[in-house]
Design goal:
Blueprint: E1 12-17, E2 24-29, E3 49-53, E4 62-68, E5 71-77, H1 80-90, E6 97-98, E7 104-105, H2 112-116, E8 130-132, E9 134-135, E10 170-171, E11 179-183, H3 184-191, E12 210-213, E13 224-230, E14 243-253, E15 260-261, E16 266-267, H4 275-280, E17 294-301, E18 315-321
């Protein structure tokens, strides 16, 4: 399920409880504001919730195959009780599945390995092309697999590897990549297209997990091939500090999910329900996704950056700038 086809997914929110042992996840269902059970003269009842372990034991769970964006993987059915809770609030039968140790394959030219062959300069050898103010918003997720050898982007095959052999990357149930990078400058451009009473544009509708500020202008990120996040150091462990390198491989083509009203779980009314159409006018800039407007860049963690800690306020440098926009699927 994706919010593109099931807009009522916007009525569910999640919160983690890392202090609990084991760590748990609470999902809250927010009845739509247009619900016939809502009363303007009385306080609404607390929204229903369900709490489940973040890493449930799989010995009692049934395996299931899940395919998302043509990329299949194995997962585990979370069981009747959990599924019944979600089905009751969706109004039709659904299943919650747990990915466990499995990963989905990264398809097409989204893979950073696919991008390596097209790049002519090693990130580790070139100077940064511009500084940004840094990470501007809390990160909603730092999960997902990455690729690369940790020594910069190189044209050569990894030492000891077979000629033509590529390392396979894996992702979770994220859309098609581990990271999605956007800028505040581009977000402001979208907000300016809305009437004043509907501003600012809800950033969560773009689903980024890294939001940057200080770009030279809106849409400059279209040309970024890589960024390096320079940690200011949040722990006493030097291994957690230093640069975190992210390879940006492709543009994010947008869909009707931008028009969903999270208060009603339906396509929004007013101009906020027409954001996709507004972006169609001038943001169809990727020939590989010519019917969809572009906002943001998909990225993967360089292998040498695994385990690094990044925080709001860290400085960011653009480590590679492409001469032209990348083309999805080529």
């Amino acid at each position: 399920m994706t919010i593109t086809y099931c807009p009522e997914m916007g009525l569910f929110t999640q919160s983690l409880h890392p202090s609990e042992s084991p760590t748990t996840l609470t999902v809250t269902y927010h009845p739509p504001t247009s619900s016939p059970n809502s009363s303007p003269t009385s306080s609404p009842p607390p929204p229903p919730t369900i709490t489940i372990p973040l890493h449930p034991p799989t010995t009692t769970l049934s395996p299931i195959t899940v395919t998302l964006h043509a990329s299949p993987t194995k997962a585990y059915d979370m069981g009747l009780e959990t599924n019944a809770w979600f089905s009751a609030h969706f109004g039709f039968e659904v299943k919650l599945v747990y990915l466990g140790p499995h990963l989905r394959a990264v398809l097409g030219n989204l893979s950073p390995n696919a991008g390596l062959k097209a790049q002519t300069t090693a990130v580790g050898k070139e100077k940064g092309t511009g500084w940004l103010e840094g990470i501007s918003s809390p990160l909603s997720s730092l999960g997902g697999g990455g690729g690369g050898d940790g020594n910069g982007v190189q044209e050569e095959e990894k030492e000891g590897g077979k000629e033509g052999e590529e390392e396979r990357e894996g992702i979770t149930f994220a859309d098609v990549a581990a990271y999605l990078v956007i800028t505040e400058e581009s977000l402001k451009n979208v907000s300016a297209r809305l009437p004043e009473e509907e501003r600012p544009m809800d950033i969560t509708k773009f689903r980024p997990n890294i939001v940057l500020a200080g770009s030279s202008g809106a849409w400059d990120e279209d040309f970024w091939g890589g960024i390096s996040i320079v940690s200011q150091g949040t722990t006493n462990d030097s291994a957690d500090r230093g640069a975190t390198n992210i390879i940006l491989t492709q543009n994010c083509a947008r869909c009707v999910s931008l028009n969903v009203d999270y208060e009603t779980g339906k396509i929004g009314t007013g101009e906020s329900g027409k954001v996709l159409k507004k972006l169609m006018k001038d943001r169809r800039v990727d020939a590989g996704a010519k019917w969809s407007p572009i906002f943001g860049r998909y990225g993967f963690l360089d292998g040498g950056s695994e385990g690094k800690i990044i925080t709001v306020g860290d400085e960011v440098v653009i480590t590679k700038r492409n001469e032209e926009r990348t083309t999805f699927g080529k």
